[in-house]
Automatic annotation (TrEMBL):
Protein name: Citrate transporter
Coiled-coil boundaries: none
Superkingdom as given in the UniProt entry: Bacteria
Organism field: Bifidobacterium bohemicum DSM 22767
Bilayer topology: Multi-pass membrane protein
Subcellular location: Membrane
InterPro entries: Cit_transptr-like_dom
């Protein structure tokens, strides 16, 4: 073990994390510059003068992330287009037309609406749609309004398990194989369903608590009054709902059933077809593409450039040295379970990371360490995928300011109300994942 390479690797990881947490440097600059400086130092440590090899390290790393970035470039605009046409609004309205409003139902509707809205992968839009829509109901039925951003935040995390979600694409970029995001999505689905059920139970609890305190007494609201809160725009295409739903279902079917077809092509096909059938004017199509392109920055370039970090850390030998250092420190009996220990404490640990440094600094290290004990990288990525602490960290998720402002509570109130509940769900998920075999190399019953 080269202790100096190990120390350089840990220093690189810490420096990237600190500069991003302190907002001293943009993600793109941190991922582009810091690993290159470390690469030159690594060559000096190993007494090598072959500086040209750094280019090969970069190429190897970016080669692992370019297909994921391409998918993001087409999948995110596709679902933003579907949101603009009113596809998700129409689904929500179809649900609201057939329910009788009460406090427990309102809390359950919060889960459903937030999950549907998060299908486009945009955290901001979920808060902007769900909280203004449902806050008046929370107030009229005397439900603790701190419940609203809490439920929405957990729902956002739950629905990050879709093959096109930015969180899933970050996780999938760590696994160098075709269709990685679809593969992870399918394997994580039992855990996702479990968390949805847990969140619905929590929602019913808070609704019943409000009802038992008299929140439902002499309170009524018509479905028409609730539906009136949905506003159409010039982009709304109610007449295309069936076609848009059919196209979306077809794309998801293609992702799952034909994993040999490049994922980015599936969504490239979907995007151009959706634009063509919804908007016949090519000038309007181009305007929409420019609008959606702005939402890709800096996330898509950050995913691409994360390959620089991964490539330099792996190809230079830093990651291997860091793993050996960890193996010397962590007691051997704990080695095979170290990733599960990290997962159990993921909520408070996430306060020390951003989303990018969680996926591109911590997870690769824990993954490489666990592989030495026979735990596949895929299992580690699945176990550490749903980083719950992001939803109480304004550094990792600055959109939380939007949520609290819309809800009319302070950030302190939100964090105090949310922290222990999030951590509890985090622990329940890990326990379920172990029992169900999702988070183990082999099921317990094998």
């Amino acid at each position: 073990m080269n202790i100096w390479l190990a120390l350089l690797g840990f220093a690189t990881m810490i420096i990237i994390t600190v500069v991003l947490l302190k907002k001293k440097m943009s993600i793109l600059l941190a991922f582009s510059v810091i690993p290159i400086i470390s690469a030159f130092i690594a060559l000096l440590i190993t007494h090598s003068s072959n500086f040209a090899v750094i280019g090969k390290w970069i190429e190897a790393g970016v080669g692992k992330t370019y297909s994921i970035t391409l998918m993001m470039m087409f999948s995110l605009p596709y679902f933003m287009l579907m949101a603009d046409t009113g596809l998700f609004d129409d689904i929500v309205k179809a649900i609201l037309r057939h329910v009788k409003i009460s406090a427990p139902i309102i809390c359950m509707i919060t889960v459903i609406v937030a999950c549907i809205c998060e299908l486009d992968g945009s955290v901001t839009s979920v808060y902007l749609i769900t909280i203004p829509l449902l806050l008046p109901l929370y107030q009229r039925f005397h439900i603790d309004k701190r419940v609203l951003p809490f439920i929405v935040s957990v729902a956002i995390l739950i629905m990050s398990n879709t093959p096109w979600n930015p969180r899933m694409l970050r996780a999938a970029s760590l696994i160098n194989e075709k269709g990685a995001s679809t593969k992870l999505f399918l394997k994580f689905m039992p855990a996702q369903i479990f968390v949805i059920v847990v969140l619905l139970v929590i929602a019913v609890y808070f609704g019943l608590r409000a009802k038992n305190k008299g929140g439902d007494q002499k309170v009524s609201i018509s479905n028409e009054e609730l539906l009136a809160q949905f506003k159409d725009t010039e982009l709304t295409r109610h007449n295309m709902f069936g076609w848009n739903l059919l196209l979306t279902a077809f794309l998801i079917f293609m992702l799952i059933a034909f994993q040999t077809v490049p994922q980015y092509y599936v969504f490239a096909f979907g995007l151009v077809v959706a634009l063509a059938i919804n908007f016949h004017d090519q000038d309007q199509q181009n305007k929409l593409l420019k609008k959606y392109a702005s939402s890709l920055f800096p996330v898509a370039p950050a995913v691409l450039l994360s390959g620089v970090v991964i490539g330099v850390m792996q190809e230079s030998g830093m990651l291997d040295a860091m793993v050996k250092a960890l193996m010397a420190i962590v007691p051997a009996p704990l080695g095979p379970y170290f990733y599960l220990i990290v997962a159990l404490f993921a909520t408070p640990l996430m306060l020390l990371f951003t989303n990018d440094t969680w996926y591109y600094a911590l997870v690769p290290l824990i993954g490489a360490f666990s592989v030495k004990y026979g735990v596949p990288l895929e299992v580690v990525v699945l176990t550490l995928f749903m980083n719950f602490g992001a939803m109480i960290s304004v550094i990792a998720q600055p959109q939380l300011y939007i949520a609290t402002d819309l809800d009319g509570i302070s950030m302190d109130e939100y964090i105090k109300f949310t922290f222990w509940k999030l951590w509890g769900i985090n622990i329940l998920l890990v326990v379920f994942g172990v029992v169900a075999g999702v988070f183990l190399p082999k099921p317990l019953w094998a």
